[in-house]
Structures are given as C-alpha cells and as structure tokens.
Amino acid sequence: MRRRVSDFTKGGGPYVWITAYDYPTAKLVDEAGVDGILVGDSLGMVVLGLPNTLGVTLADMVRHTQAVARAKPKALVVADMPFMTYETGPRDALRSAARLIRAGADAVKLEGGAEYAHVVERLVKAGVPVMGHIGLNPQRVLALGGFKLVGKTEEQRRKVLEDAKALRDAGAFALVIEFVPASLAKEVTESVDIPTICIGAGPHCDGQILVLHDVVGLSERPPSFAKKYADVAAAIRDAVRQYVEEVKAARFPTKEFYKE
Ligand code: KIV
C-alpha cells in the first residue's frame, strides 16, 4: 500500500526517512522499507558538488522529483522547496509547490519557523501537505555563519519551540528537526501533536531522517551525526579500477560480451 500523509500520526512511529534524488536509488530505498523519501535540496551538495544548498533551483527539484516519482515508491515522497521559492510570499510558494506536486511529490517541505507560518497555512488551505523544517536551516547558512548546532542558548531554544507550535498551528503534518540538542528535540516532540522527524537531534523523536549519500559512504564531508552503514564509494572505485585494468590488459571484452 502506498503511504499517505495521513499515515504519519503521533505515536505511530518510529518513522524512517531517507533522501533519494533519482530513479534507481528511490527504488532501492523503497525496497529497503523506508516510510518516507525526501527529495532534499541536499542534492546540491551530494550530487551536484555545490558548497551548500543555495544554488539549487526549482527546475533541479522538479527534475529530481520526477525521477524519484517514476520509481513508484510505496513510501511518501516529499520534495524540498528550494531557496527563495517561498520566502517571497504565499503566491510564489503556491506556484513553486504546484510544480513539485505535478512532478510527483505527495507533499513539500520548507525551511523556517513562525515567520513562514502564513505561507504554510496558505499552502495547506490550497490542498498541499507541508512538512516543516526547524532547528538548523541549511538555506540560512550565510546568516548562521556555518552548519552549527542550534539551541545552545535559552533564546534559541525558545525560538525552536515557538516555531514548532506555529508551524503545527499553520497545518504542517510533520516537522523535521535538524541539529539541535536531544533535550530540545524531546521537548518539541512532547509539545506538538504531529510527528517530529529528527536529523542530528537524538533519539527522542517520532522518526529519523538521514541523507542517503552519508549513509552509504558517498559523501565527501558527512556531518558528525550521520552513521555510515556501507562504503559504496569503495565498491564503485574497486569495480571501475578492475574494468580499467581489464581493458588495459586486453582481458575485457571476452567472447561472452560480444557477437562475431
Ligand atoms: O535536503 C535535505 O536533505 C534535508 C535533510 C537534511 C532533512 O533537508
């Protein structure tokens, strides 16, 4: 059965989410049994080689969302609204979200807190399910001065809690909480009645999300909170090294790989 937004309920977890950006990996992560696939704008860093997510365009997100949707995953597919495709107001947000939904997303995710609650509310009213993203917002990296832990001060903690409540009141169906102390993620999780999906924010959440390339060892600079479960980079390097050696040594192609 295909997952729907309404399947993500408080207490129904733990929910397992991962990113995917293309057809083959969407198929693989779906076969592995994840509940949700995020077509994250992290694709800018792990696929396109950009220094951050600011260079990712709506056209990039549409293209990659289409590729993921073509895998027909059972998991819920959420697409990220990239930098400056919703900050400019509800009208732009509606237009951007429409393109991602038409590309095959079941819902969209946007970064930011109470200051974007009116945008979330407008999208939800128009029938677009929205996932919030609070704590560290990578799209604010220039203002933050780096990818740093959020919630070290009382003021930051209060803001994260207020953001969670504002987004929930605006109709968000779930919240990603990124890189905050576990105690804060716990407090947020206990204070909202929608699922919290955490990354680098400890175990007291309704689910976890990781970036696929960090999980399989394809990221050049994985964050400290990501666990590497496989070394796919080594597997690819070894396979291609063998291919290079065999062609150079005239051991490939052998008879079974061509017709006379
Ligand atoms: O773009 C992304 O991959 C994300 C995750 C870090 C949650 O937003």
UniProtKB/TrEMBL annotation:
<dbReference type="GO" id="GO:0008168">
    <property type="term" value="F:methyltransferase activity"/>
</dbReference>
<feature type="binding site">
    <location>
        <position position="109"/>
    </location>
    <ligand>
        <name>3-methyl-2-oxobutanoate</name>
    </ligand>
</feature>
<comment type="function">
    <text>Catalyzes the reversible reaction in which hydroxymethyl group from 5,10-methylenetetrahydrofolate is transferred onto alpha-ketoisovalerate to form ketopantoate.</text>
</comment>
<dbReference type="GO" id="GO:0015937">
    <property type="term" value="P:coenzyme A biosynthetic process"/>
</dbReference>
<feature type="binding site">
    <location>
        <position position="80"/>
    </location>
    <ligand>
        <name>3-methyl-2-oxobutanoate</name>
    </ligand>
</feature>
<dbReference type="InterPro" id="IPR040442">
    <property type="entry name" value="Pyrv_kinase-like_dom_sf"/>
</dbReference>
<comment type="pathway">
    <text>Cofactor biosynthesis; (R)-pantothenate biosynthesis; (R)-pantoate from 3-methyl-2-oxobutanoate: step 1/2.</text>
</comment>
<feature type="binding site">
    <location>
        <begin position="41"/>
        <end position="42"/>
    </location>
    <ligand>
        <name>3-methyl-2-oxobutanoate</name>
    </ligand>
</feature>
<keyword id="KW-0808">Transferase</keyword>
<dbReference type="GO" id="GO:0005737">
    <property type="term" value="C:cytoplasm"/>
</dbReference>
<dbReference type="GO" id="GO:0003864">
    <property type="term" value="F:3-methyl-2-oxobutanoate hydroxymethyltransferase activity"/>
</dbReference>
<keyword id="KW-0963">Cytoplasm</keyword>
<keyword id="KW-0460">Magnesium</keyword>
<dbReference type="GO" id="GO:0015940">
    <property type="term" value="P:pantothenate biosynthetic process"/>
</dbReference>
<feature type="binding site">
    <location>
        <position position="111"/>
    </location>
    <ligand>
        <name>Mg(2+)</name>
    </ligand>
</feature>
<protein>
    <recommendedName>
        <fullName>3-methyl-2-oxobutanoate hydroxymethyltransferase</fullName>
        <ecNumber>2.1.2.11</ecNumber>
    </recommendedName>
</protein>
<comment type="subunit">
    <text>Homodecamer; pentamer of dimers.</text>
</comment>
<dbReference type="InterPro" id="IPR015813">
    <property type="entry name" value="Pyrv/PenolPyrv_kinase-like_dom"/>
</dbReference>
<comment type="similarity">
    <text>Belongs to the PanB family.</text>
</comment>
<dbReference type="InterPro" id="IPR003700">
    <property type="entry name" value="Pantoate_hydroxy_MeTrfase"/>
</dbReference>
<dbReference type="GO" id="GO:0032259">
    <property type="term" value="P:methylation"/>
</dbReference>
<comment type="pathway">
    <text>Cofactor biosynthesis; coenzyme A biosynthesis.</text>
</comment>
<feature type="active site" description="Proton acceptor">
    <location>
        <position position="178"/>
    </location>
</feature>
<keyword id="KW-0173">Coenzyme A biosynthesis</keyword>
<feature type="binding site">
    <location>
        <position position="80"/>
    </location>
    <ligand>
        <name>Mg(2+)</name>
    </ligand>
</feature>
<dbReference type="GO" id="GO:0000287">
    <property type="term" value="F:magnesium ion binding"/>
</dbReference>
<dbReference type="Pfam" id="PF02548">
    <property type="entry name" value="Pantoate_transf"/>
</dbReference>
<feature type="binding site">
    <location>
        <position position="41"/>
    </location>
    <ligand>
        <name>Mg(2+)</name>
    </ligand>
</feature>
<keyword id="KW-0479">Metal-binding</keyword>
